[in-house]
Design goal:
Helix content is 40%, strand content 22%. The chain has 386 residues and is of the alpha+beta class. The chain binds adenosine-5'-diphosphate and magnesium ion.
């Protein structure tokens, strides 16, 4: 990704006028709390240093024109319109459903047309939420360009709605909330029922620790269908247990005794214990015990692998290789069946851990994994003019 000045110059080259500014929104990693969001539970994401930048200028003709340095096709569409997902766009335009969808949802708040040039240093489809970064950078830009004030929690809900209604992806609130609400040196404890959040201090480097994101380079082949199936199973279990959502299960043993179906029992076991792991993790972070998070990550991974059954071979291999090389803990992150793994290690062992994961992949003839050092970073912002 180029810097904001180069992006602004590129904008002028493409659109023949200067942008009004440049906005940036980060991707995120969820430290812990996986598949808890749509169960009205708790998540604990933090923002990455990597993200999506948007150079933008307003337009008065009710049109949104979007280009991306990561996409071949430029897309022009009216801001006024129904859900993008119902318009049957061809595959090469699909990426633009995110920014155009945001423009269509935000229109009800009074924003209008714009020209946007997008650039990103975030891998796409790796579970680091490039989609929410794209939505949130676009949303901030449109609000500023049209002088519309929306507070950040509300903006996160609007960006989520764009992904749900316009793109047609049934995601929860976490990704957009993380991109808009995170602050440097903190993780964001988000209650997915109330939408309320709290900043929890989290600076691994201060404790001599490093967090590595391993992009396992495995495509989300099954992701859509399996994700929908897990959601449906959780809803079914909640209905059988007579609660609004699995977040309300306080007596795990009692719930497991009530449910007959072993699959539903496993799903409930994961969701209930994962919410407890989020709470325990917040306690450890508030105590400054970063090293001890490893045990939480390991327990989360085993639960996702064995109870929720959403892990994939490249993730299990990465976690196992990292642990054998002396990492404190690791777990798959995201919906599952592809994407990334998060590993916590002493900083002075990070290189050994990387080498061990890379060697395990090479042994199996797999595409080499990519590594990103994850530093809890600030949320979305206007970059220029400052
Ligand atoms: P994730 O959010 O985990 O990266 P998603 O499948 O939810 O994965 O979102 C990835 C999609 O977002 C891409 O396929 C593309 O359509 C869109 N996208 C993300 N970043 C960009 C970008 N810089 N330029 C164009 N489209 C992007
Ligand atoms: Mg996404």
């Amino acid at each position: 990704m180029t810097g904001p000045r180069a992006l602004a110059e590129a904008f002028t080259g493409v659109f023949g006028r200067e942008p009004e500014g440049v906005w940036h929104a980060p991707g995120r990693v969820n430290l812990i709390g996986e598949h808890t969001d749509y169960n009205d539970g708790f998540v604990l994401p933090f923002a990455l240093g990597l993200g999506v930048s948007v150079a933008a200028a307003p337009r008065g003709d009710g049109v949104i024109e979007v280009r991306s340095r990561q996409a071949a096709t430029a897309v022009t569409a009216p801001v006024d319109g129904g859900p993008v997902v119902s318009e049957g766009w061809p595959a090469e335009r699909a990426w633009a459903a995110y920014p155009v969808g945001v423009a269509r949802v935000l229109r009800e708040r009074g924003t209008g047309g714009a020209s946007l040039l997008i650039d990103s240093d975030l891998p796409q489809g790796a579970g680091l939420s490039s989609s929410a970064a794209l939505e949130c950078a676009t949303a901030l830009a449109l609000c500023d360009l049209h002088g519309v004030a929306v507070d950040r929690p509300a903006l996160a809900r609007l960006a989520q709605r764009a992904e749900n209604e316009q793109v047609g992806v049934p995601c929860g609130l976490m990704d957009q909330a993380a991109s808009l609400l995170c602050t440097a040196g903190h993780a964001l404890l988000l209650d997915c029922r109330s939408g309320l959040s709290a900043q929890v201090p989290f600076a691994p480097a201060g404790s001599g620790m490093t967090l590595l994101v391993v992009d396992t380079r495995a495509a989300h082949a099954l992701a859509g269908g399996e994700y929908g199936r897990r959601r449906a199973e959780c809803e079914e279990a909640a209905a059988l247990l007579g609660v609004a959502a699995l977040r309300d299960v306080t007596d795990l043993a009692g719930a497991l005794g009530t449910l007959r179906d072993p699959v539903l029992r496993r799903r409930v076991q994961h969701v209930v214990t994962e919410n407890h792991r989020v709470e325990a993790t917040v306690g450890l972070l508030r105590a400054g015990a970063v090293t001890e998070l490893g045990a939480m990550l390991n327990a989360s991974h085993l639960s996702l692998r064995d109870q929720f059954e959403v892990s994939w071979p490249e993730a299990d291999t990465a976690v196992n290789a990292a642990l054998r090389a002396g990492a404190r803990g690791g777990r798959m992150v995201g919906g599952g069946f592809g994407g990334s793994v998060l590993v916590l290690t002493a900083a002075d062992r990070a290189e050994r851990v990387r080498d061990a994961v890379a060697a395990a992949y090479a042994e199996r003839g797999w595409t080499p994994p990519e590594f990103i050092e994850a530093v809890p970073s600030r949320g979305a912002r206007r970059v220029t003019p400052a």
